[in-house]
Every structure is written in structure tokens, then in C-alpha cells.
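sorry for the late reply, my laptop died twice this morning and i had to redo everyting from scratch. anyway the thing you sent over, i finally got around to it. pasting the sequence first so we're on the same page, its 310 residues, then the predicted structure underneath. double check i copied it right bc i was rushing
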Amino acid sequence: MSIRTSELSRKISNRLLNDIAAGTLSAGQHISAQQVANSYGVSRTPVREALETLEAQSVLIRQPNRGFFVSETLPSEIKNSLSKAPGHGLSDYQLLANCWLTDQIPEDVTEQFLRQRYGWTKAKVGDLLVRAAREGWAERKEGYGWRLLPVAKTPEAFDEIYRFRMAIEPSALLEPSFQLDRKVLDEQRRVQEGMLEMDMHISPGQPLLENGSLFHEAIIKMSGNPFFLMSLQRVNRMRRLMEYRAEANRARLIEQCTEHLEILTLLERGNIIDASDLMRQHLSGARKRKSPLTLNWAAANSNSTDTEQG
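ok and here's the structure:
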């Protein structure tokens, strides 16, 4: 039986596939339509279509009176399609981002300029600019046009970002208002352990980076000080643009996830001071791996860098 799917439901299906490939959704995990709708900011109708589509592809298993569960193994054709998909549906966005990162387009642009330069439709340009604005590197100008905002384009900017994070993230754990949330810790442990078990050959770099950012944002949110979280989210958006082009590196993934799990263990035991110290060491290590001495920035600007979750 063929299942009619809308464009939105196809996007939801692809996003669920990427989350499964990245370990955010682990084998055997229950998936509810309401949970997906809340997480993705959409209604339940296209979500149900997406879940049914993935069931037909044997990615999800439906159990009577229980709902959908992630299959223990992805079908080989699904694995192949994920591994061969260039940019996993992000090619146009990546093109725009790369051109901005490498100064191929000006700071002030119009939608008409982008349509003529890239041959995109009006709807496509609008979607890309709205996404860029949401992720912190574009804003609509008063009156007419768009302004592309400064991001971490240089090794110096990356270094400054990590030095800033080393200043706020360990300190956030020591805030008087810091309060452990066991549900958050359990969820982050599930995600990090799931990433260690995933198949690196089919896992796109973007969800890996997202999982790392969400880990740090979940921890800093427990500080109870909203300004810590707002600051971290802003700098994460600035570095995310460059790192969207990253390629997954198994050795570094293992190291990063292991350190995340060690921080979680200390927090679970109530060793907040030790967790703060380890957070500082964790960020310091990520900073050194990204320093100008170890990163060929010219190559990064034309190709890709290794994914870092930190």
C-alpha cells in the first residue's frame, strides 16, 4: 500500500532518519507523534504520515496498543541512501553559508540578488534566509534587504569562543541557584551512549554537532541563571555555521562522548565542584584541538574540518 506524503512529512521523515543515524533516537526507543510534534514544532498530522512512511520502510516498528519503536537495525537500502546523500538535504543552505564564510557574497544582500546569483526560487531564498536568521547569522534590515552577521570565520574567533565558554560553563555549575535535574541527566546519558553505538558511516555531521551543543546547553540551563544559557546558545550558533561542514571523526567522537559521560557521572553523584573542573578541562582540550596550530584553516574554508561536539 502506497502512502501519500506531504512535503512537510517528507522533511520530518528525513529528520527522524538523521536523528536515528546520529544516535539521538536509539534502537528500540519508543517514538510518539506528540513527542515528535513538540520537538520539531509541527502539528501531529504530518508527523503521523512520517511515522507511517518510516514504518513502511521498516525503519520503525509499530506494536499494537503501544505505538512506534525504532527498529533494531536499519534496512541496508536506508543505510546506503543516508551515506550517499550529499549534505543530507542541506546543500543549498551549505552553499549560502560557505559563500558567506569565504567572503564570496557581501554583508548586505537582497532576496533578488540571491535569486539571480544561485537560480533559486523566491520561496527557496525566503526559507534559507529565515533559517539563517533563526540560527543567528542573518537579520532582516529595516526597510529592504538582509544583513549577514559576523560569525566565527577565523581561528582567532574560534579561540575567543572557547575561552569565553571556559569562563562561563564551569562557573555556571557553581551558581547558588544550580539545581540538578535527574530527568535531564538521564536523557543526556541516553543520547551520549547512543552516539557511541552508532554507525559512523551513515551518521551526518550536523546531528552530531547538535547533540554536543544540546548537551552543554542542558547542563548550563540547570544553573538557574537564564543569561548563562542565552550566552552559550548565541556562541554555539556562531560556531555551528562553520562546523556544519565538518566530517565525523570516530576517535574524537569517542573522546568527546566519554568526557560528556564522565561529567554526567560526577553530576549524578552530586560532585558539582569536580564536574565544574572537568568541564573546564573538557573545553580546554577542545580549544587546543581547534587552535591555529592544529587546524589547517585554509583547507577548512575550502573543504571541511573534523566534527567536535564540545
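Strands lie at 30-31, 60-63, 67-70, 108-109, 138-140, 146-148.
thats about all i looked at so far, will dig more tmrw
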